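ok so I'm stuck.
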Amino acid sequence: MRIVIDCRWIRSSNLDGIGRYLLELLRKLLVAPGRQEYMLLFADTARRDWVTSQLGEQVRRDAYSTQVLGYDVLTLRDVLRLRHDVAKLSPDAYFSPMYLAWPFSKQYRTLFVVFDLIPFVRPEVCTTLRWKLFYRMPFFARAIFRRADRILTASEHTKQDIMRLFGIPSEKIIQVCAGASPAFTEQVSDEDKKAIRLRYHLPDKYLLCVSRQQPYKNLSTLIRAYELLSADMQAEYRLVLTGARHHLYTDDLEQSVQKLVEQGKVIFTGYVEDADLAGLYQMASLFVFPSLYEGFGLPVVEAMAAGCPVVSSHAASLPEVGGDAAVYFDPASEQNMAETITAVLQDRERWPAMVRRGREQAKKFTWEKAAADVSQVLTRQNCR
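replied:
not stuck anymore, here's the structure
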């Protein structure tokens, strides 16, 4: 069985959520024994060479081949040529970790992953005219979802959103697992922690939020909640915010907390390399995730896997992810957020139980299970 996997969504070595999901999935899919022949699509040779170098020694080199298309996702050539070029490869199925594509053909099955519907639910994330038009005219997405043979999603909440917003029948949408890297469960050495602390100017004790710097991530409310903490608590615990700068939002966010930054109470680390992220989680006193909407919420799983207690927004899919291991707050209320953070920080006897439950909860989300779920859907012959 030949399965084409569109790897063009791994767009650089600075992996975003989709890129990380696909790379981790490949590392497991290409190890599992089976009669599947995987063909990996790339836009150019540079990204092909980087991705294949990252697959790991356990990957069976005879389990896959590669094809360089010469054009990227979301381009005019992609729209005009993808279906034809995929059909030439004679696959049984085409799989993409993103639904923004038009590869449809009667010759093969088409399967997409939908992580979330943030642009439809939170339209303020659309910052260019092209995407504002696309997401304000949902019949384009509806047409894609209706043509797809199967839609995979990582949470029940996103499945319900697809059904509600686009009228897609439940049986066409399959919930599959997502995972956190095993690196988060491995204890970072004291020497490496010291280096990470120096690299990102981390204080001894801090509250951590790993997040993009976009409005729906609700960082401004988190900062206001932090300001509501007692003076003693602020002196003991700093607030550390990770994430690459956003050209539209970061300047305003930093200016709004300039005084706190100058006082050393709020620290912006910028982008954190994957190799350093486990150390950041493991050194944090508490992980706080204030998001207004998440299709899955991978940082919550990563924090729990790393042994960091978690307090989280109760919005969207996050209670599915955190289960009974996290403590939840109303993301619209900085007062409730501050009270929840304070209650957890003051009750240190509670921390070991939160850490223990968090690690158990994180075990539900592994890349082995994710690959097994996806493989089962990809190889199912009767899913038209």
